[in-house]
């Protein structure tokens, strides 16, 4: 199976359809509910909904997911029955296979109930009509890459006693985003130096997005949130809440982190944890959603 643990939940939706062809007399009996095995459409609807919920039982690489809603509808023509399945879930992966499975199961049950009456039955044209949800629905495009800076806040790293891994991980992650890293520096846990550097990057360098890593814990020298709070004009609590919630689902220690995020002028500053694991999980949690902030910051609206 594909590891989906780094992903976050979004509303997922899929719509699929398929067709069963039959003789006109057979279709008429379906409409009149005179098929010996019973109500064809009611049975097919139940089978389709059940199949959506059980998709992972027989599609090998599908994840078992919570189905929030599934429905089957029908369009009856003179010699065809079209089955339409819709599925919703708030989860980490899409529900395309669930919708396709629902259509397939509904069609097979119709076929089974009608086969004693009609040897000309034919089913097919099973296809996905629509899907929504996931990161691809939340991607913003920019004429030019956003300019970013990475600040590593650590006494031990600044003094050369420890190698920086978290800052380099941020840079590597940003290579796959519409972002260019224009600055990378290592600073000690000195609140004055941190404040001064943040102001310079925003006011003079006009950097769009600044990531700090480190100094967000509870030790006496951890002052990155305080330095950030001193210079931002607007806080964005939702970003920090998302980071901590995403982290807390993976380790209880995430609740001890004190990141804050905010805007100064037209620049966004985001505190990240100091550990590489915390940095990686935080970036996975907030991208690509945070990119949508920049059109708003620049006055272009949603």
The CATH architecture of the largest domain can be named as: 3-Layer(aba) Sandwich
User: Sheet with the most strands?
Assistant: 6 strands, mixed
CATH class category label of the largest domain = Alpha Beta
Q: State the end-to-end distance.
A: 36 Å
The number of distinct β-strands equals 10
Strand order of the largest sheet: 6-5-7-10-9-8
What structural class results from the helix and strand content? alpha/beta
Tally the helices: what do you get? 10
Write down the overall mean pLDDT. 94
Sketch the topology as an H/E string, one letter per element. Answer: EHHEEHEEHHEHEHEHEEHH
Describe the global form.
elongated
How are the SSEs placed, and which strands pair?
Layout: E1 10-21, H1 24-32, H2 40-53, E2 69-76, E3 80-91, H3 96-114, E4 122-132, E5 146-153, H4 155-158, H5 166-174, E6 179-187, H6 191-204, E7 209-213, H7 224-231, E8 234-235, H8 237-248, E9 261-264, E10 267-272, H9 276-286, H10 293-297
Parallel strand pairs: 5-6, 5-7, 7-10
Antiparallel strand pairs: 1-3, 1-4, 2-3, 8-9, 9-10
Entry summary:
The chain is α/β, with parallel strands linked by helices and 302 residues long. It is built from ten helices and ten strands. It is elongated.
């Amino acid at each position: 199976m594909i590891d989906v643990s780094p992903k976050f939940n979004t509303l997922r939706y899929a719509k699929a359809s398929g067709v069963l062809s039959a003789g006109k007399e057979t279709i008429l009996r379906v409409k009149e509910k005179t098929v010996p095995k019973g109500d064809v459409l009611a049975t097919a609807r139940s089978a389709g909904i059940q199949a959506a919920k059980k998709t992972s039982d027989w599609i090998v690489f599908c994840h078992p997911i919570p189905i929030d809603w599934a429905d089957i509808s029908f369009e009856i023509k003179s010699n065809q029955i079209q089955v339409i399945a819709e599925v919703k879930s708030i989860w980490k992966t899409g529900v395309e296979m669930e919708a396709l499975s629902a259509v397939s199961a509904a069609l097979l049950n119709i076929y089974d109930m009608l086969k004693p009456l009609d040897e000309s039955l034919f089913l097919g044209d099973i296809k996905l009509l629509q899907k929504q949800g996931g990161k691809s629905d939340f991607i913003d495009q920019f004429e030019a890459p956003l300019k970013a800076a990475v600040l590593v806040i650590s006494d031990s790293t600044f003094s050369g006693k420890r190698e920086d891994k978290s800052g380099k991980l941020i840079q590597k992650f940003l290579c796959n985003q519409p972002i260019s890293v224009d600055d990378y520096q290592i600073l000690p846990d000195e609140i004055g130096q941190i404040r001064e550097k943040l102001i310079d990057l925003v006011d003079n360098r006009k950097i769009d997005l600044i990531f700090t890593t480190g100094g967000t814990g509870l030790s006496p020298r951890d002052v990155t949130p305080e330095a950030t709070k001193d210079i931002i004009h607007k806080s964005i609590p939702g970003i920090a809440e998302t980071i901590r919630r995403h982290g807390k689902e993976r380790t209880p220690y995430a609740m001890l982190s004190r990141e804050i995020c905010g805007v100064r002028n037209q620049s966004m500053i985001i505190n990240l944890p100091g550990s590489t694991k915390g940095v990686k999980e935080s970036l996975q949690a907030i991208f690509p959603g945070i990119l949508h902030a920049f059109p708003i910051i620049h006055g272009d609206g949603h």
